[in-house]
Amino acid sequence: MRDMVVACAAGKSDGNVVLDLSEVEDKEGEADLPIALMPRTGEITLLQMDGHLTEEEFQKALDLAIGGCKKISEEQKKAIKNRYGD
Amino acid sequence: MVHIVPEIIKESVTNLVKNGERTDGRAFDEYREISLETGVIEKAEGSARVKIGNTQIMIGAKPQIGSPFGDTPNVGVLMTNTELLPMAAPNFESGPPDENSVELSRVTDRCIREGKVVDLEKLCIVEGEKVWMVFLDLHVIDYDGNLMDAAVLGSVAALMNIKIPTAKIENDEIVLDYDNMIPFPVNEKALMCTFAKIGGALLIDPSLEEEEIMGARLSIGMTEDGSICAMQKGGAEPLIRDEILKLVSIAKLKTAELRTHLP
Amino acid sequence: MIFVEDKEIVIPGDILSDEEYHSGRGTFKENDKVCSSLVGLVAIRDKKISVIPLQSKYIPKRGDVVIGEVTDIRFSMWNLNINSPYSGFLPASDVFGKEKRELNRTFDIGDVLFLRVVDVDEVKKVKLGLKGRGLGKFRGGILINITPTKVPRLIGKKGSMINMIKDETHCEVIVGQNGVVWVKGEPAMERVAEKVINMIEDQAHTSGLTDRVRDMLAKLLGREPQESEIEPELSDAAEEPGELDISDESDDIVEYDEIDISDESDEIDEIDESDESEEPEEKKENKEDEMD
């Protein structure tokens, strides 16, 4: 394995660009943007988008999702190190 | 579609790209020649034939009265199906839809649905009971790269081409008035723009050769006001944030260009 | 320049060093940087960085001694599960010589054998053999599975750890390099050994393990830890933190021979070709005895 891929979704709910949509927000919301990322390089390996986002909203959502991925990656690493750490 | 591309071809195309050129001499942001005709099939209520370069798709749009889905009783139904006809490419086979055919249907459907090309609510005749259903059939007759942009362009044109009789309720029955045909309720012309990443560069409207060797692909669906309604990344290689944002701004110009081909 | 310490835990994608170092097992190079491709411990030897996996399947290597279970009987061989993605086969010729016997009378499905890996070919077909001192079929006892990478730790420096367990529990213990451990003794003692072995597997990469094992043994056996009886070797072992032996040479085998297993020969039915006339009865006898 070259890296530990993480994924996260951002979107738009009730007119606001938000991170990590809940089920209700996903169903009733205005946009859904899931991405997958390789934490070491920041490269995006999966991206899909449904809904309605202006260019600015898209940038905001993309950055939110990238940030979310980085956070999940830290949790992943912590979990593994805790399992094996002294 | 399993197709083995000789390493030599991959190298030569990539080297050209690194020099700022493409095998057919196009610029990185240039589409091939586009042609779009509507009303080409007499028997279909709506039809279109779209060509981008040598890629050719015939699209039929058939409206029909039927029942709505349980969870959306006041909304019409849109169903998209793709046939990758064996004559279109040596590696297309007849049979049930494979993953590429399904992907093309879903991406086209997503762009049209999320872009709200058809006002599905206007298709409701009797809530919970009768609605207009429209079946979009995409028949790929010639595959020379970039089916997605062609499919969306042709589908929007086919939908615009439909005329339906006005529907009235008389004595609890639906009466279709064929003397008063109305155009299908198309309000938004959302279109799609596809880019391929080769040798680190981003090229619009990949040809077949380019598609076969590309590392990644990004298709962006946009409405008339430049909002994004659909996006799909394909390919094994990754993209970076800045590349994606750059493509969004190029797509804005290019979808507007594509729109000029619509009737 | 190096970005990690020896024996640090790393995960796939972690950057270990720059181009000054060579990429060893468990790593790959990207843009002149050496990165980890596994979850494991960093091992730095001169200018080579490797990552030793914390958990892995056993990959058979010629010369290894392994414990396997017969899973299938074919025309002229037995197939065995050796706790690996690859199954091993034991040719009948290894056991019978020229004479054909009924294979299942010798070893049946479910029998557990102690074997040597004779050869591994390019498509990972694993040939096993029984010729050798101490190899053969086990009778009775229990089996414990541990991750193969922890086997050196279980054995310890010059067998110190494994001998401690054997001495304290009075059990016979044989460790296969494929991570399968055979223990035989009084049932209660077998359980003690099992607990200790599982603990060692869980904490193999930590320091101070030898002390904790000694304490645990004492606790489980219901007496005070006997510090005075420690041989100098054991205390050496205790001083070196987290000594997961990660050399690429198979000096595990050397260590292994040092553990005297000749005592166990009555617990293992060695295949002896010379006593052909006696064999049928012997085998029958042994099979009955096996129902411990």
Can you give me a brief rundown of this structure?
The complex is a heterotrimer of chains A (86), B (263) and C (292). Chain B is of the alpha+beta class and 263 residues long. Chain B is built from 5 helices and 12 strands.
N-to-C CA distance of chain B: 34 Å
Order of helices and strands of chain C: EEEEEEEEEEHHEEEEHHEEHHHHEH
Report the radius of gyration of chain C as a whole number of Å: 21 Å
Number of helices of chain C: 9
Distance between the termini of chain C: 59 Å
Q: Class of chain B, according to the CATH hierarchy? A: Alpha Beta
CATH architecture of chain B: 2-Layer Sandwich
- What best-fitting shape of chain C do the alpha-carbon axes yield? flat
Instruction: Provide the succession of SSEs of chain B.
Output: HEEEEHEEHEEEEHEEH
Basic shape of chain B = elongated
Class from secondary-structure proportions of chain B: alpha+beta
The biggest sheet of chain B, with number of strands, parallel, antiparallel or mixed sense and barrel status, is: 6 strands, mixed
CATH superfamily annotation of chain B = GHMP Kinase, N-terminal domain
| Overall tally of domains of chain C | 3
